[in-house]
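Reminder: ligand-aware prediction takes two inputs, not one.
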Amino acid sequence: MKKKLIAGNWKMNGSLAANASLLQAVLEGSQGMNCQAAVCVPAAYLAQVQAVLAGQSLIALGSQDVSAQEVGAFTGEISAGMLKDFAVRYAIVGHSERRQYHAESDATVALKAQRALSAGITPIVCVGETLADREAGKTEEVVKRQLAAVIHTNGHCISEIVVAYEPVWAIGTGKTASPEQAQAVHAVLRAQLKAATEHAERVQILYGGSMNAANAAELLSQPDIDGGLIGGASLKAADFLQIIAAAAR
Ligand code: PEP
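Here is what comes back for the chain with phosphoenolpyruvate:
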């Protein structure tokens, strides 16, 4: 059976001291658990977290973004090659906060996924509808459009990505998609992947949006939910560990 993946997205949170104690608790508490886990940390802390995670394979290192450019005069950008220097295994691309606050288009997100893949980094491609989209009955149309751009640009490499379904209305709001709502969208995404690759079953499709210790087990029991992308709850070791434990069952 495919292992589940629980990836924490720390967003713009942390400090050298806070990261050290969070990671120590997560590393200690996750010993022996049968699940893949990752922490996607602010770029400023990649070196620190790389050093703390060295020599173990339970928790992988991730970034929260990657540049769509390869190299050159792009002030403030961080390339996939640079991330690779820090042994980054996963890069979140197309998070709704990037799409919203940095006006990232579907085409840019697709290019970012391509840059990550060519550097040997697994992109965690986020897709998700806003509340207005959902209320207008456009959920399926929106997530399919977002994923289609990534499929179009990445061709046969598409089986190497991770997808995260993150309804925008559920991110950081405490409102979670019900297991049935989430599974319905995951099934749509799986079918879209199946039309693009014969390896669609091995693509991990994560759910993200106020997943927490209390609701994780039910969400993760859905047939097409292969893990979680966790924001707020990844900043509290006990909560993150309970989610990892739910995924390891
Ligand atoms: C996220 O930012 O990817 C996320 C899912 O956040 P939260 O868990 O806080 O809703």
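The chain is about 40% helix and 15% strand. Residues 9, 166, 171-172, 208-211, 229-233 surround phosphoenolpyruvate (CB under 6 Å). We will return to this case in the review session.
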